[in-house]
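Section 3.1: Structural characterization of target chains.
Under the original work plan, the team committed to producing a structural model for every single-chain target entering the pipeline before any wet-lab resources were allocated. The record below documents one such target. The sequence was received from the expression subgroup and is listed exactly as submitted; it comprises 133 residues.
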Amino acid sequence: HDAETQAVTEARAIDRIGIVIVEAMGLGKPVIAGSVGGPTDIITERVNGLLVDFEDHDGLASRILEVLDDQNLRQALAQGALTRAQDFSTAIFARKLTETLRELTCLSETADALNEQGSHGSAERALPGQERM
């Protein structure tokens, strides 16, 4: 995509992952994508892109012309796209993964502590799915 690109249309009717969409958003390009699959998890209608049923050729053409003809909409979608693309950056991914792993570690430690307490009492105190030793 070059600086002259006004908008990006994801051409596949079903995009399960949305990599093309996220990459276009990261370049600050308004995105028009299919209204099924991965794009619906990425795009908020009229905030950071547009969703359209790709079976509706007139609707798709209408959406493309709308973005090309309306500079304010194009700029708003581009800004929203840049903001949304940050949610998919490697730094954000690493932070979210670290937080999740910490939460799982805390849950595991809590379960271990509860199980240890339960081993000093009755069998009913063991957590479900865990057997007392």
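The two ends are 61 Å apart (CA to CA).
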